[in-house]
Amino acid sequence: MTASPSRPDLLQLVARLSGALALAFLTFMVVAHLLAGTDDPDGLAFRSATDGLQFALFPLCTMLGLLLAYRWELLGAVVVIAGMAVLCAIRPDLLRFAILIWGSPALLYLAHWANARKQRFA
Fold first, then answer.
1. pTM of the predicted model as reported, rounded to 2 decimal places
2. How far apart are CA 65 and CA 80, in angstroms?
3. Within a 10 A sphere around the Cβ of 89, how many other Cβ atoms?
4. Is the pLDDT of residue 36 over 80?
5. Helix/strand/coil (H/E/C) assignment for every residue in the chain
6. Separation CA 35–CA 27 (nearest Å)
7. Residue 97: its pLDDT value, please?
8. Would you say residue 2 has pLDDT above 60?
9. What's the rounded Cα separation, in Å, for the pair 1 and 4?
10. Spatial distance between the Cα atoms of 34 and 29, rounded to a whole number of angstroms
11. Is there a contact between 84 and 103 (Cβ–Cβ < 8 Å)?
12. How much is the average pLDDT of 18-30?
C-alpha cells in the first residue's frame, strides 16, 4: 500500500500539472501564430518595439519560466512573476483575473519552494 503524498509533494504535483497545461497551451498558441498565414503586408512583424517587448514578456518569458521551474522552482517562478509584473507595468489594462491564471503555476512553484525550504531547515 502506498502512502499518501505529503503536502509539499502534492503542492509540487499541482504546480507541475498546472504548469504543464499552461506551457502546452502557450506553445500551441505561439506555434499556431507563427505558422498561420496572414493577409497583412507586414506578415507577422511587430508594429512597434512595445509589441515586440510584450510578445517577449508574454508568452515567451512565461514559457521560459515554466520550463525553468521544472528544474529550478525559484528561478522559474521569479522569471514568470517578473515577466508578468513588467507586462502589467507596461499595460495596466491587462491587470485582471486572467493574468493571475497564467501566473498561478509560478505562485504554486514559489509556495512549494518556500515550504520545502522551511521543512529542510526545520
1. 0.85
2. 5
3. 11
4. no
5. CCCCCCHHHHHHHHHHHHHHHHHHHHHHHHHHHHHCCCCCCCCCCCCCHHHHHHHHHHHHHHHHHHHHHCCCHHHHHHHHHHHHHHHHHHCHHHCCHHHHHHHHHHHHHHHHHHHHHHHHCC
6. 12
7. 76
8. no
9. 9
10. 9
11. yes
12. 94
Report pLDDT digits (tens) over 54-98.
Answer: 989 999 999 999 999 999 999 999 999 999 999 989 988 887 777
For 64, the grid coordinates are 521560459
Residue type at position 9: D
Among candidates 18, 13, 7, which has minimal Cα distance to 115? 7
- Grid cell, residue 38, equals 496572414
Residues in the chain: 122
